[in-house]
Amino acid sequence: MQNPKKIAVVGSGLVGTLLAIYLKKRGHTVHVYDRSPDIRKINFTGRSINLVLSDRGVKALRDVGLDEEVLGIGIPVEKRAIHTGVDTVNEQFYGKDGEVIYSLSRGLLNRKMVDLAEKAGVEFFFEEKVWDVDLTTATISIGESERGEWKTRDYDLTFGADGAFSRIRHKMQRQSMFNYSQEFLNIGYKELNIPANADGTHKLDKNSLHIWPRGNFMLMALANLDGSFTCTLFMPHDGENSFESLKTKEQLVDFFANHFPDTEAVIPNLVEDFFKNPTSYLVTMKCFPWTFSDKVALIGDACHAIVPFYGHGMNAGFEDITVLEQMMEQYGDDWANLLNDYENSRKPNADAIAELSYRNFLEMSSKTADANFLLQKKIEKWFSDKHPELWVPLYSRVTFSHQPYAEALAIGDRQNEIMQEVLKMENIVENWNSEKVENKILELLKA
Amino acid sequence: MQNPKKIAVVGSGLVGTLLAIYLKKRGHTVHVYDRSPDIRKINFTGRSINLVLSDRGVKALRDVGLDEEVLGIGIPVEKRAIHTGVDTVNEQFYGKDGEVIYSLSRGLLNRKMVDLAEKAGVEFFFEEKVWDVDLTTATISIGESERGEWKTRDYDLTFGADGAFSRIRHKMQRQSMFNYSQEFLNIGYKELNIPANADGTHKLDKNSLHIWPRGNFMLMALANLDGSFTCTLFMPHDGENSFESLKTKEQLVDFFANHFPDTEAVIPNLVEDFFKNPTSYLVTMKCFPWTFSDKVALIGDACHAIVPFYGHGMNAGFEDITVLEQMMEQYGDDWANLLNDYENSRKPNADAIAELSYRNFLEMSSKTADANFLLQKKIEKWFSDKHPELWVPLYSRVTFSHQPYAEALAIGDRQNEIMQEVLKMENIVENWNSEKVENKILELLKA
């Protein structure tokens, strides 16, 4: 057991609340601060890509007995449904039989997590703005405005779970030797909506992640519990086929009729939603170190914000907690070494999922419609079925295993090199499932 | 001519003062703000690697008639003097006959630049701390402390020339789509001193940049006007042979006796200076965009802070001004497009000199003592002398030309590939200046 500490968690998002539950279960006093009102008391709308929960996230929930409650509000998603043209849909299963990811509403999930944390004995302080943290004492400063009066609250340890624009990290960033980068994609996103049928059923297959891949832009749809789908349009901010280029109702309607003709029947409020909903930005944020002695630590998006194309933002944040829990088990009260080991073991994996997520935009928006890529996936699946012990596809390593992300990335790169060799073989389109191909892969795997 | 504007320049360093002179010459009202006291009224000591001024910097000074005054306080440096062992010194000339760089004291130069700017009609506001800038109006906010009372001053345009930890950039950083990175090297530095002889002469050759390359650490010395040398010890912060490993007087004296035995006679105050002077950090900072409409622009270290190993920090900052001047000539009063073209044309070159500077630590600390590298340099020089129109060495492109840094880097990489091929030739050590080698290079250049 650890000696009980008084711990502040800044941020009542998904990672902050789950972290609070873990800390509370270890006997600590846990106070969670958030600058926003209690999410259970407000209407949540708008900004937020639907969440995808996969094995890493499920494990973190299961270890504190919360997986069933959370999965109860999720919709299993077993495949990609690729809308290549009008009425042409290709299906790509994510894993083997029964392997699924879960579509979740961020708002619903967050409400549930706050409930569960309160039930576990965590105290919440909403509409309390944390502006500063003293890195040597973990004391936080709270006030109405950045330049107004502040009061202080003393803690033994403060966690920054306050997201990509973390105020706690902002303070750490002023130290020497603090590495930091924020890089915006030129791709933005906007939410649209596919409402439920009159009888409450879904207009599209609810167990698919729907993609309309169109090169440098794409539309995506994920099912909600109420029969609706949240759609997300990913597109460059400027240039050809960009948010900037869609200024009028006519331009918008033409654009959708040209590129997404099969959505006309299912997105009735296109024009209203498009011009009402904000265009949001996508950023990759990296930093190091994540901790300061035994006093302050960052977790989740606050230390590794990633783009959403692998669906791993929450999963990576929840896995931070799994790793932290292992460290608490291992180091007990030696918090300085505990946090040091946490950041060092976790950082390469955070960098790896950032890279994988960045690359996946290309895969989703272009490659899913590319014959060569589809052939590659087909060969991989065929070989993997024959030799499951020799070939686990990258997506499965990332999504259906707990292998460290950095290892998954390295093996995935090696597999891709092998497949590039295989795709160069003569008549590969016809002979893709021949013994020759099988032997070639076996030989390359040994090299 | 441009219509006169009221312009604020934040930062009275080298780039801020030279920029102010350029703006003043164009008829603008120019106010320079600095949080520090007037550098002409204080003793400057300690932190600051000696400056190196080369052709890009000289050009920016010459274009406003200031080159002779500045070169008058500089010492020409024509070569590297590589101290490989006791009394063993290899010399590497930087360029062709007469091509030199200049060693300058940052403090002396900065005082002179402020004098020159005042003479040109620039107004200075020292000990005025700028905390904020309104990006849409260029209005700056000034006050005693970050959280104290602020007063505002209105301008038409505000330049941030406030260095690597720029407050103006800090404000821009809060926008969406602002890319930013700061990356610290694990190499730190500390200043030491070689005093003048009793008669005021230099203890070492004053026209050399002295290097004691020792793998992952090195000592460097640059001459000052008063007969002394400023020495800089570059070394990892921690690990073997690090600042952290030198905690006691005995450890320090042993370390210098082992690695720099020939410095004992010339650095009398080693122990006192080492423990008195701070260990400083080295950071590479990149960002984009550099400007906000026609209201706010960054320049110099504020938008591209680099490590000092190519001696180009000030030169790159001064070249920013040369480019800005070309844009003022070209665009006149169209400041929005003027600043847009400035940032777009300058950014790739800022990235290139950052990369070159980062790489040069390896060259200075290890490669200058490496037989293969010395052979490469010898072949390059020999070929370049024979075919000056076909081969300008990278160092000369960067230091003795005004070719954009990005082009110099790209050509340098190509040249290095060629030389790696050449070094693989049979008996290259004996035949380095043979016709065969000459033909090989000529052939590779055509490829």
TrEMBL record, chains A, B:
One Gene Ontology term from the biological process aspect of the record: anthranilate metabolic process
Gene3D superfamilies the record matches: FAD/NAD(P)-binding domain
InterPro entries associated with the record: FAD-bd, FAD/NAD-bd_sf, Kynurenine_monooxygenase
Record's keyword annotation contains Nucleotide-binding: no
EC number: 1.14.13.9
Pathway this chain belongs to: Cofactor biosynthesis; NAD(+) biosynthesis; quinolinate from L-kynurenine: step 1/3
Catalytic reactions on record: L-kynurenine + NADPH + O2 + H(+) = 3-hydroxy-L-kynurenine + NADP(+) + H2O
Keywords: FAD, Flavoprotein, Monooxygenase, NADP, Oxidoreductase, Pyridine nucleotide biosynthesis
Stored Pfam families: FAD_binding_3
Domain FAD-binding: 7-355
Domain of life, per lineage: Bacteria
Cofactor(s), names only, from the UniProt record: FAD
GO MF term (any one): kynurenine 3-monooxygenase activity
Cited function: Catalyzes the hydroxylation of L-kynurenine (L-Kyn) to form 3-hydroxy-L-kynurenine (L-3OHKyn). Required for synthesis of quinolinic acid.
The family this protein is said to belong to: Belongs to the aromatic-ring hydroxylase family. KMO subfamily.
Record PANTHER family: KYNURENINE 3-MONOOXYGENASE
Record's protein name: Kynurenine 3-monooxygenase
Naturally occurring in which organism (per UniProt): Flavobacterium terrigena
Organism taxonomic ancestry: Bacteria, Pseudomonadati, Bacteroidota, Flavobacteriia, Flavobacteriales
